[in-house]
Amino acid sequence: MRLKTKLVVAATGLTFAVVLVMSAIFVGELLRQRIEQTVSSNEVLAHQIVMVTVEALEQGLQANPPVDRSNEALVSAVTRALRTETSLSHVMSTIVRYSPTVQDVSVTDMAGNVLVSTDPDAVGQRSAKRMELVLIRDGSVWSQTRQVFGPPQVLDLSEPLLRNRRPFLLVHVGVRSTFLKASYEPWLRAAVLFALLAGLASMMAAAVLANLALSPIEQISRKLEQMGVAAEAEERPTAEPLSARSDAVIRVTRSIDRLGEQMRSAEAGYTSLQENLNQMLDTLRDGVLMFTADRRAVMVSDAVEHFLNKPESAMVGRRLEEIFDPETALGRAVLQRFTDREQVSGEPVAMEDGRQVQFSLDPIIEGRGAGKDMGTLVTLRDTESAAQLSQELEVSRRLAAIGRLTAGVGHEVKNPINAMVVHLELLKSKLTRLEGDSLEGAQRHVTILAGEMHRLDRVVQALADFTRPMELKLQEHDLRGVVSSVVELTGLEMSENGVTVRMEMPREPLTVRLDAELIRQALLNLLLNGMQAMAEGGSICVRMRREKQFAVIEIEDKGEGIAPEVLPRIFELYFTTKAKGSGIGLAMTYRILQMHGGAMDVRSNADPSSPERGTTFSVRLPVMSVGMGADVRRAAGVAHAGVAAHEELV
């Protein structure tokens, strides 16, 4: 069977199934409406009988009142009044005679005893148990069909007669299911016939429409077959008969598969190129914008937001005049240079917030000389950020130089210390043979010597710990939890020193791929430094936020601050301003952050009269985002490899 035939049959069958289901729903809804109409009309009849019964009771009890006030006398009087009142029996007989669905009508007391009925055999007997017609009305379509068209039965519709707001008598209207079936069958047959005709018409229409819709596809298929035959005729020897070749459909399928493979390969190449370009732009601190010849931005890097305070999504596709505000110094300068159509390289501009920015304009010309204008590349550079980056590189170079120096020193000093300790122990054993003051004096000098050697050994051990290669155990963590654990760890020591810690965290998670233990050690060093800077107590504020692709942690203390002449040296190994400091903590912290692809800077105010006196350490770590997990892992791997290579050189 051909593919077109299969599709036409499938469309026709699906249409028939849909029409069949809709027809079933339509017929079921009609049946429900008819049953509701039957119940409503019989409820009207029952209510009419109740009114006639009330009139009969009023007239009968007035003519023949109860002999006493007992219930037996009242029941006897009521029964006599109902049976002797001809109007009630006339109405009940009329309803049975002219209603197409009612079989009998009766009035019973609350105990179920039949007082009057259109069926003489039922008078004085207990009323038979019947299924309520209301239950069928409220049931499902399947239940309604089964009760109406199933075995014959009498359905009951009851209406109470109240006395003192309580049921006193019940009026029963018996509806026979065979009467309902006979009443429903004519329109039901018509509805089913209509549904079948609609189904057949829909099938024919679906077959015609499917055939018309698939005709262009069949023409395209024939064209592809002809193209495939022509291509193979060029590739194969002309002596080969056409019948010996493979089926045309298979050839077309193979051609389409090859074309799809080429398209997928090209798409994968373009996607990889775009990812590499986006990754390169995201890691740049310079803002890069690409404009077409009609001054519309087609590419904007994330760093542009730092210069223009606009999100990247709000700039892509916008015109030059919508991106650069002419009311700002940078906007005026860029717009003027665009108007002049000049190439600009590193022109400085003073921003309103005091920053010094350089911008460059590079027109893209097709061909040489007066070629076609393809667009313009705009580059924005923050000179302060460049200076900060140079400072970080300088600190890294200093740490590397110190590491190379101290590794050799530690190796050379460790062995003599071990030999000195061994010989010192031998000397102590020999001195035990001396006596008197000479023994005490010699022993004191030996003890001092041993203490100094142990202190020197601790210094060398700390040096070895700093230069020892670290193996990162990177895992994804919510940075908020890591910071909270460090604050909780230092809580007792902070309270003992009169220091309070206040935390400001974002509501959304900051997912970072890091070694949690090493980051805790780095943050612990910063918190303890802040506590030690406030000898008389104070407060430390730990703030967290997200800036583009980085998570930023700021630890601000209100201590004495760091003098400007000392500030550039605080990350140097063994440099410290504390009487008992080792000078390793900040250098180790800086090294840990470098291994994670992060950075750290410090701001400090040491002016005693300034209300902003204190120090703020800012830590930056790359944030994990959807679709960027591999890029962050790759960046962390590169940083780890760089540090490992440096340690191997050391």
Structure, described:
The chain is of the alpha+beta class. The chain has 5 domains: 3-195, Beta-Lactamase (2-Layer Sandwich); 246-279; 280-365 and 373-381, 2-Layer Sandwich (Beta-Lactamase), CATH 3.30.450; 388-467, Helix Hairpins; 475-649, Histidine kinase-like ATPase, C-terminal domain (Heat Shock Protein 90, 2-Layer Sandwich). 56% of the residues lie in helices and 19% in strands. It is built from 17 helices and 17 strands. The protein has helices spanning 3-63, 71-84, 86-98, 133-138, 141-149, 177-235, 248-283, 304-308, 320-323, 329-340, 383-431, 436-467, 479-489, 491-496, 516-532, 585-595, 629-649; strands at residues 102-109, 114-117, 131-132, 154-163, 166-176, 287-292, 297-300, 344-350, 356-366, 372-382, 475-478, 499-504, 511-514, 538-547, 550-557, 599-605, 614-622. Strand 1 and strand 2 (114-117) form a beta hairpin. The protein is elongated and about 140 Å long. Residues 237-252 and 626-650 have low confidence and may be disordered.
Keywords:
single chain; 650 residues; alpha+beta; Beta-Lactamase; 5 domains; 5-stranded mixed β-sheet; 5-stranded antiparallel β-sheet; 17 helices; 17 strands; 56% helix; 19% strand; elongated; disordered C terminus
Rounded to an integer, what's the Rg over CA atoms?
49 Å
The structural domain count equals: 5
Major β-sheet, in short? 5 strands, mixed
Q: Report mean pLDDT, rounded to a whole number.
A: 77
Number of helices: 17
CATH fold type of the largest domain: Beta-Lactamase
Helical content stands at 55-70%
Question: Strand order, biggest sheet?
Answer: 2-1-5-4-3
Silhouette: elongated
In CATH, the architecture of the largest domain is 2-Layer Sandwich
Count of strand segments: 17
Structural class call reads alpha+beta
What distance separates the N and C termini? 76 Å
